[in-house]
From TrEMBL, chain A:
The chain crosses the membrane at residues 7-31, 75-96, 105-127, 183-205, 211-234, 246-267. One of its GO terms (cellular component) is plasma membrane. Residues 71-262 form the ABC transmembrane type-1 domain. InterPro entries: BP-dep_ABC_trans_perm, MetI-like, MetI-like_sf. It is found in: Cell membrane. This is ABC transporter permease. PROSITE patterns: ABC_TM1. It comes from the Bacteria.
TrEMBL record, chain B:
It is a multi-pass membrane protein. Keywords: Cell membrane, Membrane, Transmembrane, Transmembrane helix, Transport. This is ABC transporter permease. The chain crosses the membrane at residues 28-54, 90-111, 123-144, 183-201, 221-243, 279-303. GO terms for cellular component: plasma membrane. It is found in: Cell membrane. Residues 86-300 form the ABC transmembrane type-1 domain. It comes from Sinorhizobium medicae. The keyword Transmembrane helix applies. Belongs to the binding-protein-dependent transport system permease family. SUPFAM superfamilies: MetI-like (SSF161098). One of its GO terms (biological process) is transmembrane transport.
TrEMBL record, chain C:
Its main location: membrane. The lineage of its organism: Bacteria, Pseudomonadati, Pseudomonadota, Alphaproteobacteria, Hyphomicrobiales. Belongs to the ABC transporter superfamily. The keyword Coiled coil does not apply. This is ABC transporter ATP-binding protein. It comes from Sinorhizobium medicae.
Amino acid sequence: MRANKAFLIIAHRLAILAYIAFALFPLFWLLKVAVTPNDLLYSEGIRLWPSRASLEHFDFVLRHSAFPVFFRNSLIVSGSTAVIVTILASLSGYALSRFRFRGKYWLVTLMLLTQMFPLVMLVAPIFKILSPLGLTNSLTGLVVVYTAFNVPFATFLMQSFFDGIPKDLEEAAMIDGATQFVAFRQIILPLTLPGIAATLGFVFTAAWSELLFSLMLISGNAQATFPVGLLSFVSKFSVDFGQMMAAGVLALIPACLFFLLIQRYLVQGLTAGAVKG
Amino acid sequence: MAYAARHEGLPAIRPPLMKRIADASAPYLYTAPALILIVTVMLVPLVLGISYAFRDIQLLNPFSGGFVGLDHFRALAQDQAFFRSLRNTLWWTGASVFLQFAFGLILALLLDKPFHGRAVAQALVFLPWAVPSFLAGLNWAWLFNPVVGPLPHWLFAMGIMSQPTNILSDPQLAMWGPIVANIWWGIPFFAITLLAALQAIPRDLYEAASIDGAGPLQRFLSITLPFLAPTIAITILLRTVWISNFADLIIVMTNGGPADRTQIVASYIFTQAFKRLDFGYASAIALVLLALLLAYSLLIVILRQWLLSKD
Amino acid sequence: MASIDIANIKKSYGTHPVLHDVDLKISDGEFVVLVGPSGCGKSTLLRMIAGLESVTGGEIRIAGRRVNDLAPKDRDIAMVFQSYALYPHMSVAKNMSYSLRLRKTAKDRIATVVAGAAAKLGLDPLLERRPRALSGGQRQRVAMGRAIVRQPKAFLFDEPLSNLDARLREQMRAEIKKLHKDLGATSIYVTHDQIEAMTLADRIVAMNGGVVQQVGSPLDLYDRPANLFVAGFIGSPGMNFFEGNYQAGEVQRFEMEDGNSIPLDAPPLSNNARVTLGIRPEHVVLAGHGPETLLATVDLVEPTGFGIILHLSLGGASFKAFTNDRSFLTASGTIPVRFPAHYLHFFDAEGRRV
């Protein structure tokens, strides 16, 4: 009986370890190739760690390539999208959480439907609409598009955070002498701060990862976001593996940082999005 | 007694008009910015896209734009590449969803029991979810590349492959590349959702079942599964729609190749719009995809009604 | 401090009415308890007075001023919530002073008032703590402290004790009563607990189904319930009811359905009228001989420590009796019971007291 139990525990730990290895191995390999000097890359192809590690690829990518520009563009786009979406979603999420109003059902249905239908359908028409406005090949255009795509999901997320704050608190504040807006600012908002941070994180991560629309809407290097830049680099210089992977590691950094930020809220985020990745 | 009912039928006293207007419009003011954005950036293009399906819209041809009726759909009916992409979509979606779910469920069950270091283990196994999809695609493409990746060599050493070649360029095997990447990337989604559902199951149910004499397998079958069933159903249904539209990994890893062997409908639409700049034809395919997804959703709704009525 | 006049107040959600023409005059310094089962409209009425619910019809005046359209903040009232509604991100002191800070009261004045309230409620050592770090009873005190620093025109309490365990509830009940004695503030207190209502109120307003059933002093409601609802709601264990007929004659009698009858000196009723007879368990006399004595079967004996509740039946009707006599702990079989005439209540077919 006891041996059986010990066996179960060992099997459980081994299974967990296998999952961790599977989850981390690709990222580990990315890092490994990124620090392998070119002369060792082919001779030590499948060694788990090169006999000599160097940061030369990072150095090259940061100083002699366009990646810092891509990185900056992506930061601008994802950062602005996250901020704007969070503001809009706070407002609409608050309304969904606190008010009963005519048309609410239709609004929620519309927002749910936008999460369901294939966004790839919109690639062509959005290009056609943005082009005469001068919003193709522009970071502003991307921000507008990403903001619209992320608002529904962020609204549901913010609504779930507002729902977690008892209505009594606002009412107590209003009896204590606050107007509705003051109650919102001094009582509700401070209590929603973790929710706001989580929403920022989710939207940032989503915008940072978006590929199809940035491929379609951006052409020049100057406005390219990280995915566009990396993909065009891959198709042009497909032998500089070390540099590509060094760039890949750089793209991973903000994603990992935000992952740490929103880890606690993953469940809430995934259920609010329901169908979002 | 002071409570006697008096003043029968006094007209209700209404608050002043301005206050009423302000109160009534507040929810609309809060939601207006989001709504306007959704309508202009999502609904208007959707309608426009539907109209493109019946027009000749080619970006590089200034004389295009005319109404062509059902021409695109006639061309589509003859388009072997489209039908192949339909079959590929089924294969891609079915394999991805099933394997993501199976591995996700096992992971959720493993993480459900408390153990030393669970929080860290959880953070590590969920990390792939945060990796941008384009990077996940590139990363796996590199792992499958015999020049820098270990996988072909390992498969060769184990005798599974006769040569350490890149499966992404093998027409028979290429689809497995994006599917494996998708499984790696999507396990956390299922695991997180199912873990949350698992932890919502009241613990005393298990205790009651043990006292009633149920073994571990019986407890799983009679308590865990029935409690998880609604979550499993809804997650799989929604995920199916989402993954069938998810073209990022394919575009990054194989671009539909070799010889269209990995082209799914969503990536085919993107290729038509992005590479050939044929917006009309791309929109026609998109419309068919939308119709198929609607039919699928409708089927689900009907199935659900049927199951409910059976009980 | 102020009087509160509620005239002909109506409330409905859409077409669904929840309050029907409530009239109530509360005088300066009075402690009024709104009591009733859940869903009776008592909380809605309180929230309308606070300004948290709109008024569908009628008029609310605080200190003579019509407040129907005033925002809660302009009504100068304080409220204690069932959930306490303490601001989780503020310390106890900040919670208590929030209203004063919103009114831009001078800093030193705030400090004095908060210190005074804290001393009164025994909160001095907790002033810098967050609500999260307090026990249920302490949170309850902070909620009270937040109300009293304001010196508002009136205090509103919305089931303030229902989240506490029985012992704390008893203790806080006494403290609320003491506080009211000290401050003499007009108070409206909502509860579903009839003991709270009896012990705290100057006047009880019993409500059911959105209609006021009776207004009066606690003993009024106990001794002379206006209808079956009030009779059954006030008192624990609840009043016993028997269905039957009134028989006029040389000796007036109440005839139960199983044929038992009780002689009465009752109010004049028309002969053979259908009435409900009510008697409180503590008024049932468990002894006697003579014509008015009945033989009841003992079904169950429930010792409460303080006394004994006997579950009895008389023909088909079951009822309860309460006694302090411990010899009844072993009661079984049948025992003689008597319903003294001056403790009997009568209600007509519509449930009104006669």
